[in-house]
Structure formats: structure tokens, C-alpha cells
Amino acid sequence: xxxxxxxxxxxxxxxxxxxxxxxKMSLSSVSxxxxxxxxxxxxxxxxxxxxxxxxxxxxxxxxxxxxxxxxSLKLNKKLAPISELLHSNILNDLPFEVFGIEVGDLxxxxxxxxxxxxxxxxxxxxxxxxxxxxxxxxxxxVLRSYQEMHDNYFPEIEQKAKEFFQKFDLxxxxxxxxxxxxxxxxxxxxxxxxxxxxxxDESLSSLRSVLLPGSSPxxxxxxxxxxxxxxxIFGKELGFQFMKLKNRxxxxxxxxxxxxxxxxxxxxxxxxxxxxxxxxxSFINDLKHFFEKEHFSEKPLVEMMxxxxxxxxxFMHRITHISPQYFGLNELFFLRFNYQPEEESFHLTKExxxxxxxxxHGTALNEHYCRRWVSLTILEELEQxxxxxxxxxxxxxxxxxxxxxxxxxxxxxxxxxNSLSIGFMLNNNFKKKVKFWNDPAIKxxxxxxxxxxxxxxxxxxxxxKPFILERQKNNTKIKEAxxxxxxxxxxx
Length: 492
Fold this sequence. Notes:
Layout: H1 5-22, H2 27-34, H3 38-45, H4 53-63, H5 67-71, H6 80-88, H7 90-93, H8 103-112, H9 114-130, H10 135-149, H11 155-167, H12 178-188, E1 192-194, E2 209-212, E3 218-221, H13 227-242, H14 260-277, H15 280-291, H16 299-308, H17 312-327, E4 332-340, E5 345-353, H18 374-384, E6 393-401, E7 407-415, E8 418-425, H19 428-433, E9 443-447, H20 467-491
Helix pairs in contact: 10-14, 11-14, 12-13, 13-14, 15-17
């Protein structure tokens, strides 16, 4: 892998700083002996500047090392894990500025306590390897953190959506269907739409779309898509073009991830698509009427989806955009499960947790998610009906954690083999805003995270023994016994 120029500067700066500290020299003393100003030395150590050859030679003489060693990309053993990070280029792909962090400041912190922090980095790298934490998965984890920081609401993209309506003289109260969006792509952005080529290649037939970039981009579209799916893909392409997002994927689903910018821009374009398909002001009003109902019914939800001609996922994501910002319902989670009937297994494929990590979450690895969650029972219900539902079905459940005060009102939607769920914390604010929260028709169930951690031994839905819970209990007993022995020995 070719290491980036900025990382070469960072490595050089780390070496200079490390040598200066080992020699117990101040910036001022190095400046006097090398003829390099203190301010320039400071820039070098922060990785912002890389001096010319004659100044590197002067520094090598001051520190008593060879020129070749100083310009090499090798760090000593203590800083080896930091070197591994820099060689991976991952630090350059993450949006540290979004989190108010400068890479130079981070490395300065690491180099201040190199032994302990380098060991910590080594441990993280090892954990990542053992748990198959690929760079791609890491990028998506960072994206989730970015969404959670902003309560999954991005006013700058909402504003771009409004500008889009204004620029093309569109009405927010008029449905933007796939035909209107396709015309905008072809007429305003010179797109060509091809619905034949994609399915001719069997290896590409599972994709919904592929973009062939150029001055006249060609969008290869799967002809099996329905109008809602087409509308979302067109809306997303308009997002890339209207917001001028250049670094982007060219396939509808991820085949490879080149950088975090690619992941972030893909999210922004998807958010834009949902914002033009389900305009903010109109949707706020619709949600307000829905939340004010005394009894829950899925009919208003189905009608809203039909009104906006949105895919189930677009519709549910839009609820997570608007609910925190305009209704103060920011203690929520979003989950997407995929069901594999032949394996009798459920896979958590997407999650967002606002205001804390709610359960279930994606760290359960190969454990079995609690079968009492409506996110899973709704899929079993669909399977029993033969997957024949023409429209998505909605279900609502109060989920109360065993041995916990946490309780959520979980809205689940399912179609085919996927379920989408939004869980709202049943706190006082939610009870004020959502009138139907105490509808007696809503089923209440005690739930847990996974079977392997659950104390409900008599649970009929249990899919695995609680061996993790039993191991934890056994370890507790051993610790208590050891503590008693130590206590008795100290008394005698």
C-alpha cells in the first residue's frame, strides 16, 4: 500500500518529537543548534511541515542519528502500532474534523505516553482481527456515531432539499414519483437510463442499479424494481448531482468501500432522497396527527406510505429523522433484521441508537436474538402467511427488559424477509407526545437481548441455552468464594 504524503509528514514529525524528548531537549535548544525556528519545528512535530534535505541533515546531526534513518518510514518498537495505523491510511479517511479532532493532536496524545497507548492500540487492532472488524465495518460504525451525534437530523441537507424544490419549480405537497425524478435526471443532468444491460450479466443481476460515470452518466437499472424503489434510486442520484458529491459508490449496494468519504457521501445522498420524497413540513404534520390518536392503528401508517410512495425503509428512516428534532423523541433506536427461514436465523443488518446504546445491538456476534422482540415475531408471522402480504404490515409492542426498568414502545414493519423497527423509550416526554402509548390493545412482553444472556429459563421461544449468563454467575460464585477465603485468612 502506498502511504500518503500527509502520513509521511506525521511519521517524520513523530520521530523528531520522540528524539527531542529522549535527548531531553527543548524546542528552543534544538532551534539554536539546528538553525530552524521554534515555530517551524513545532509545525514539523505536528506533521504539518516536512523540511528540505539540508534542514533534515541539520536535525540528524543535532540528534546524533543518520539522515537515512530520520527520513525512513520506520518508527521504533514503542510506536510500532501508531506506525501501523499511519501505514493503513485509515486516519486520513476518517472525518476527524467532524468530531473536532486534528490528526496531529491525536498523534501527539499517543506519543506522550507511547508505551501504554501503543499497547492499547495493539489490543484494539487484535480485537478487530479476532472479531472480523474490517475497515468497511469500522467506517459504518463511525457513520452511525456521526448520525447519533446529530440525532440523525441534518438541517443542511433538509435545506438542500428545499432549494431543490425551488430550483426546479416543484411543489412540496405534490408527489415526486419515479417518472418526475427520471425526467429531472435525464433533462437536467444528462443521464441515460438503461433497463436491459444489468440483467444480462448474471453476476450483476442481484443489484438494483449501477452507475457508469461520465459527461453523460448511464444508470443501469434493474427492470424488476417497483416504482417506489426506482424513485429512491433516482432521488439518490439527484442527491449526488445536486449536492455535488463526487466521491461516491457506483453500485446500489456495497461491493467495496474505498474511503469514509464515500460512505458519508452515500449517506448524504440517501438522506437527500428521503427528504425530497417525504418533504419535512408535510411529514411533521402527518406524524403529529398520528401521534395524537388515542388508539393505535396501522391504517394511518399505510396511508402515509402510499401518500409519499416511499419504500418501507425510506419511510421508517424518515420517522427517525423527524421524531427527535420536532417531537423531542430522541431516545430511540432503529433496527433492520433479515430472516433466513432455511437457517431459522435472524441477522441484524442495520442499527442506529440515539441517546445511548439500546438493545438489541450488533455486538452479539453469533448469539440468538430474543425471539420475543416484535422485530422478529413479525417476520415469523409473515412466514406463516406464506410471505404473500401485498403491503407491508405494521405491529406495535411494549417491550420491557427482564431485570430492568427500561421499557420501549416498538413499532415494527415487515415485508418479505426484512423487518424494520423503531423503539421509543417509554419516558414521560414520550407519554405526553404520543397519545396511544397506553392503548390496552398493545401487547406487552418481557424481553432480553439474546437467549445466551437471558435468565428466563422457562421461555418457550428460547433458541439457545443461557450459557453466557451461567458462566457469569459461576464466575461471580468463584469470586465470592475467593473473597471469603481471603477475608477469613486476614482475620486469623
